[in-house]
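Q: What would this chain look like folded?
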Amino acid sequence: MAPLIIPDGSPPSPGQVSSSTAGQPRQPSGAAQFDAPFRLGVDGKPVMVAQNSPEEVGAAVYNILVCPQGAKLADPMFGMPSPLFQPTPLDLTAILRTLQRLEPRADYTLSDVPTLLDWSERNLTVTAQVPGLPTPTASS
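A: My prediction, written as structure tokens:
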């Protein structure tokens, strides 16, 4: 398992963890996979992405984040563990390890911030940097 690393070498700030484990991007192959989220193009056919491309890595990260752990029968450990009934602040290290285990081709930064009106309500932000793509951010 890769160590948790902050890019500038400083310790993580409270409520934030980061990783820098992505290696050199692999060369895209000729095989195509469905993009995520699944959608149809203007021609009515599914939108596809090249295997091992930055777009495919981004689609894989998206699929991990939206799939609850245990929902995929062929791989019950796939997906994110539910943060429901977890103590606050959330254990970002466990979430980061899950992301690194399932998709090691991206670098991740996670932050957990309470909302201003209700400290029991949390905003979890996951940023995945995929080599060759601009940084997308998903919040829940």
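Confidence is low (pLDDT under 50) at residues 1-12, 21-25.
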